[in-house]
Amino acid sequence: MKDKKKRKTSTCVLCKCAVAQRTVSEYFVGLLLTDVFGPVFNRFSRTKRKRIGTIDPNQKFCQGDGLCRACASMCGDCVRDRDERKFESTSETARKLAVFQDHVVQKCKGKLPRSGDLATLARWNNENDEERDGVPIGSWWWELNRPEFAERLERLKNFDDASKNALAYLATCALREDRSLHTVHDVRKLKVFHAHVVQKCKGKLPRREDLATIARWNNENDEERDGVPIGTWWYDLNLPKFAERLERLKNFDDASKNALAYLATCAFREHGKTRLGAVHDVRKLAIFQDHVVQKCKGKLPRKEDLATIARWNNENDEERDGVPIGKWWYNLNRPEFAERLERLKNFDDASKNALAYLATCALRERKPGRKAK
Question: How many CB atoms are closer than 10 A to CB 210?
């Protein structure tokens, strides 16, 4: 019989251990054994740290060069890995720099954005990234030029000619005069707000706590969604400290100027009768009644009860699990929310009849807990 071939055993270039001893690693034995034999692993780690400290720092190591898994995990910040990570980071920054330069040339007319500026850009996170709103280009440019990131800027300058030329061009640009690029977004929101006041609120301005169901609020492609804080937006827009922001909005175009002139003549809606939150409560009340009749057999849920329900947040909301219907019903009947319940009762006949029916229902029985042994 032929002798079996001896298995080739190589030693780690750092810890000088054989293959059999490389299994002393959390990669192989798992986290449970790591907790049990923690002191043993720490002892091996201390020894290896001492040996790693004696290696020439300019020598390049990775797992393929003869490191065992344990040493490779401890020596993850080796020179070759650092170079690869720096190259990937610089490549990503170069892509963003090209997008940033195009934005400065085409949209900002050669003016650099300020720290708080946002923009609508595509290809920001990756090459396939679609156009999205609220990209913090001002913060990105500010961070890139901080003194502590001078090495990062130098790597970007030496990455390729396109990046070098882009940085040379941007170095000649001045900061724009305006303090915020939010004006474009405010114009869109003003148009949506104006249409909402005319069509849904009958010429009455919403109050600060009012919410609404609106489309195109965050961006042009934003679908209709529930709970948009239009009252807070209008309140903040008219604060004295934002007078400059309101003035920029007024001078943006004729449509914005006319919208603000019209809204200045509107009065606030009556606080107690036409609260916009009642519309959402009416929808939830109808869903809650159907759930009590069909699923709970005429029994009211308790405070901690959850349910699987559709249309809870808005009309297009799909069926989702864990809806806190018990908490919603409990809060609706609290004494401090008596006015809210009264508005709901006077909203229409369907809501009045639903509340009358639910008032006759009893709470479901608690399931008896398991007896202690």
Answer: 22
- CA gap 138, 311 in Å, rounded: 39
Where in the chain are the domains? 19-76, 81-175, 182-268, 277-363
pLDDT in tens, 93-132: 888 999 999 989 988 888 888 877 888 888 888 888 888 8
Unique residue bearing structure tokens 């900002």: 108
User: How far from 293 is each of 287, 317, 353, 354, CA to CA, in Å?
Assistant: 10, 21, 14, 11
Distance of alpha carbon 138 from alpha carbon 6, whole angstroms = 63
Find tokens 């344990």 and name the residue.
Answer: 70
Contact between 81 and 105 (Cβ < 8 Å):
no
How far apart, in whole angstroms, are the C-alpha atoms of residue 260 and residue 309? 41
Q: Which residues contact 70 (CB under 8 A, 6 or more apart)?
A: 15, 22, 24, 25, 27, 44, 48
* 3-state SS assignment for residue 99: helix
CA distance 186 to 127: 28
How high is the pLDDT of residue 82? 56
Work out whether strand 320-323 and strand 307-309 pair parallel, antiparallel, or are unpaired: antiparallel
| CA proximity to 68, closest of 28, 40, 36, 32 | 28
* Residues 19, 21: Cα–Cα separation, whole Å: 5
Question: Where would I find the H helices in the chain?
Answer: 26-36, 38-53, 69-74, 79-106, 137-144, 150-157, 161-171, 182-199, 230-237, 243-250, 254-264, 277-294, 325-332, 338-345, 349-359
pTM: 0.34
